Amino acid sequence: MEKKKILFISSEITPYLPETEMSRKSRFLPQGIQERGKEIRTFMPRYGSVNERRNQLHEVIRLSGMNLIIDDTDHPLIIKVASIQSARMQVYFIDNEDYFQRKHVLKDGKGNEFADNDERAIFYARGVLETVVKLRWAPDLIHCSGWLTSLVPLYIKKAYNDNPLFVKSKVIYSVYHDDFKKSLDVTFRAKLKMNNIINKDTEMVDEPSYVNLSKMAIQYSDAVIQGSPKINSEILEYIKLTEKPFLDYQPENTYVDSYNDLYDKML
Fold first, then answer.
1. What torsion, rounded to 10 degrees, do the Cα atoms 151, 154, 160, 165 define?
2. pLDDT for 28-62, tens place per residue?
């Protein structure tokens, strides 16, 4: 029997970034799911703070070289990879000089959110999916963690819905306590447009706030997980209203088995 394929897309993974609830789960969950007999691929952004030499990142030439057009501008897509030897697991990194080579993650040294975080989220989501297309790897389930991955459900259900690799893919979105305070760029909805995405598909982010972006991710997902002990109360209420399959917060000693059980139910 062919192994089920799980694609993990995260905003952060330890040891490449400091330990947080999300970065730890994004590191150990794929390993645990792989040990339970599933095939995995794992992605994160190649932020400038990720030490390439220490972590032995190298560019995958056969996957790099594509340009993604965002707001009428071409942005080269660079793919790098590193191995976590103890887990027998590879991590793919989405890189671009304009978006990800600064030394901070989502805020500058003074704590100000980057003005182009909207385009960084677009580039990251599309970059992952285009790389998966190049890998010719059809995921049965896609698990997204953190708001930077929040556009993946929209793209899977609308822009890539006729791609044979994704036509059967289920999407799970994990909501964390990773709120951003300032709304994204006012032209965000226009930048989202691509094949098969029409204006009404993005109505929920007419005001591109953290809450509205999260709600849109949930709207296009097949199931939702509460990744942090506490999350935005308005988002939690919205999740309940959708009546989608929902897994509440799971502590360190139970989350891998609980998530795996949810995957099996979705598949």
1. 80
2. 999 999 999 999 999 999 999 999 999 999 999 99
Q: Where does residue 7 rank: exposed (0-12), middle (13-18), buried (19+ CB within 10 A)?
A: buried
| Of 135, 147, 48, residue with least CA distance to 90 | 135
Q: 7 has which bridge partners?
A: 41, 142
Does residue 54 sit in helix, strand or coil? helix
Q: Which CATH architecture has domain 5-266?
A: 3-Layer(aba) Sandwich (3.40)
Q: Check: pTM over 0.85? Answer yes or no.
A: yes
For 217, left (φ over 0), alpha (ψ -120 to 50), or beta?
alpha
Q: How far apart are CA 26 and CA 39, in angstroms?
A: 15
Domain layout of the chain by residue ranges: 5-266
Beta carbons of 138 and 166 less than 8 angstroms apart: yes
Q: How many CB atoms lie within 10 A of CB 164?
A: 9
Low-confidence residues of the chain, pLDDT below 50? none
